Amino acid sequence: MATGPSRAPGSAVFLDRDGTLIDELGYLASPDALVLFPGAARAVARLNAAGLPVLVVTNQSGIARGLFDEDALRAIHLRLNELLAEHGAHVDAFYHCPHHPDLGAPEWRKDCACRKPAPGMFLDAARERNLDLGASHAVGDAARDLEAAARAGIGSRLLVRTGKGADTERALTDRGVTVVDDLGAAVDAILAR
User: Fold this and answer.
1) What is the pTM of this model?
2) Closest CA to 60 of 44, 76, 78
C-alpha cells in the first residue's frame, strides 16, 4: 500500500501558562478564578493567524499535592480556550506535568522527565506533532521554563517580565534568551523572525 509523503517537521510556539498567559495565582484550582493577562488573547490570535501551533506546557504539582485533580485541570483549560475564543484565538494543545518529586500520593510523587526544568513536555509534543524544536519558540516567566526549552533544543527562547519574569530577569545567566515586557511583545519578536 502506497503512502503519501511525510510532512516535514514544523515549528510551534510553546507557552508557559501561569505568569505568561494568565495571572499567577498560586495553585489555580477553579476555572472561575482564571484571569487572562491584558492583550494575551490578541497575542495568541496573532500566532493562530500566522499558522503557528500554540502549545501550553505547564507544571501542575497541585495535582500531586491533592489541591485539584485532572478533571479540574481539564475544566480550567477548557475555560481558558473559551476566553481565548471570545477574541478569535485558541490553544492547540495543553501539556502538563502533574508530578512533584517529594509530595503527594505515590503515583504522583516522583522525579519525572516532564516537570520543568526537564524537557519532557516539549519532547512529547515534538514526537506527537512532528515538530522541529530548533525552529520553534518558547515563552515563559521563570528560569525553569527557559531551562526546559534550552534542554529540549528550542531555537528561540523568550522571557516575559510578567509573573515571575522581572525577578527571573535579574538572575538571568542564559544569554540566548530574549527579554520582553509581555506576551504581546514576545509575539512581536516571534513574528518578526
Assistant:
1) 0.94
2) 76
